[in-house]
Amino acid sequence: MASPSIQRRSSSSASHSQWSYDVFLSFRGKDTRRSFTDHLYSALIRNNIRTFRDDEELRRGEEIAPELLKAIEESRIAIIVFSKTYAHSKWCLETLVKIMKCKEERGQMVIPIFYHVDPSELRNPTGTYGEAFTHHEENADEERKEKIRKWKTALRQAGNLAGYGATNR
Predict the structure, then answer these.
(1) CATH number of 18-166: 2.40.50.140, 3.90.420.10, 3.40.50.10140, 3.30.450.20?
(2) Is 18 exposed, middle or buried (CB count within 10 Å of its CB: 0-12, 13-18, 19+)?
(3) What pTM was estimated for this model as a whole?
(4) Given a cut of 70, is residue 99 above it in pLDDT?
């Protein structure tokens, strides 16, 4: 079995800006890895857009690795694919908090894609997002409750951004 890795692709034309990556791609692998996200990632790479995609399928727990934090900070744009079970992943939620912090502090552009979810589900967790938070809040101590508050704030901020929708219609 391969060791946990982070997938990176670079175009041959290196940029001399403050950004190491054009795009940081955030998604819940379980929902979109073999479909929408793979197609999006391939299109970005085909167009020589330096894209960082975390191999989250191999990750466990909720602490974000320093290399991942650095990649978020060094990306000019973050594209977040909000899918049905995105909020079930503590890892995704922690990543989202970091992205929203970089938006505020570093001017990072954030582009949400609402993949079979409505932005209102993020602003006021309902549906599968409400279910996820019910689960996260079960037996939560004060430290966990503070994390949950940060997750909800980041989701609300992201839900208020203009983004793109992807549905089965």
Answers:
(1) 3.40.50.10140
(2) exposed
(3) 0.82
(4) yes
